[in-house]
Amino acid sequence: MQIEKRAPTADDMDKINGYATREMKSDEVYVFSVVLCDNDLDRDFEKFSNTALDKLAELFIGKTMLSDHDTKSENQTARIFSTSVESVDGQFTRLSEPYKRVAASAYLIPTDSNKDFITEIEAGIKKEVSVGCAVSNSVCSICGKNRSCNHMRGKEYDGKICYMTLDNPTDAYECSFVAVPAQRAAGVIKHFDPQKAADPMSAITAEQVSKMIADALEKQFPPAIPEATPTDKIDWGILLSKFMEVKT
Q1: CA 239, CA 233: separation in Å to the nearest integer?
Q2: From CA 71, how far away is CA 5, in angstroms rounded?
Q3: Predicted TM-score (pTM) of this structure
Q4: CB 3.0 to 4.6 Å from 106: which of 17, 78, 102, 135, for a disulfide?
Q5: Quick check: 64 and 215 in contact, CB under 8 A?
Q6: Contact 150, 124 (CB under 8 A)
């Protein structure tokens, strides 16, 4: 994770003033650079594709920065006003691919209320970030299926590690300062809505779960469900599909 303060350029000020309701001067803003995310394998055994990084760079322009993904307005700390996808010469990912990252520039207005926050940035205390975004594709490295296979992330299959490649981003919500990001060089979180509005799993009741499992088992073992079904006989892909069919 890299956060660096820098002097705003004339081009920076043009972009910043595109968000301000009055023309701001360069000595009124605090500008810093930050790495949002990259294509390296993260702690959850997931990685962004290079095309996903390109799209995320577009989507994150204008997005707000928060603390700990708390979406209350008082937790807004800064705003991203420009992004770019960078390669780092001589640096490779854990999968031996050329390393790429999404770098961003953000600004805030120094005030009495955030002076401690700025001091913590400059002292290296506040430096890890995590991004909130949505992707439509999560592809297994072992079988190539999207979201619906039985392979376990982090487990080896015939000497190959299982991980998911995240592709086709559909939205970028925010970027937050956090203590421990998923990505080692920046940070990624895959869930956005703290009120669970965007998560179809969040509204499932215990009764619904029981019914879905029963339906899946009946489909797997027609015409009747055995009283004691061995777990290694259950098609967990069917169960997952049933779960994902539920809508809020």
Answers
A1: 12
A2: 25
A3: 0.70
A4: 78
A5: no
A6: no
50 is written with which tokens?
């290079």
- Vertex 108: Cα angle to 42 and 196 (nearest 5): 50
User: What region, left, alpha or beta, does residue 167 occupy, with left being phi > 0 and alpha being psi -120 to 50 degrees?
Assistant: beta
- In sequence order, which residues have a C-beta less than 8 Å from that of residue 112 and are 6 or more positions away? none
Instruction: State the DSSP code for 223.
Output: S
What residue type is assigned to position 202 of the chain?
S
Interatomic CA distance for residues 174 and 237, integer angstroms:
32
Give the sign of the dihedral formed by CA 179, CA 183, CA 185, CA 187.
negative
Alpha-carbon span 236 to 86, nearest angstrom? 39
Half-sphere CA count of 92, side-chain side, radius 13 A: 5
What are the boundaries of each domain within the chain?
3-137+169-194, 201-245
Tell me the mean pLDDT per 10 residues along the chain, length 248. Answer: 76 96 95 93 94 98 89 86 95 96 94 91 85 95 94 96 97 86 45 40 50 59 52 54 49
Q: Answer yes or no: are the C-beta atoms of 28 and 53 closer than 8 Å.
A: no
> Could you tell me how many residues make up the chain?
248
Radius of gyration from C-alpha coordinates of the chain:
22
Point out which residues pair with 104 in neighbouring strands.
34, 83
Q: How far, in whole angstroms, is CA 72 from its chain's centroid?
A: 19
Distance of alpha carbon 242 from the chain centroid: 25
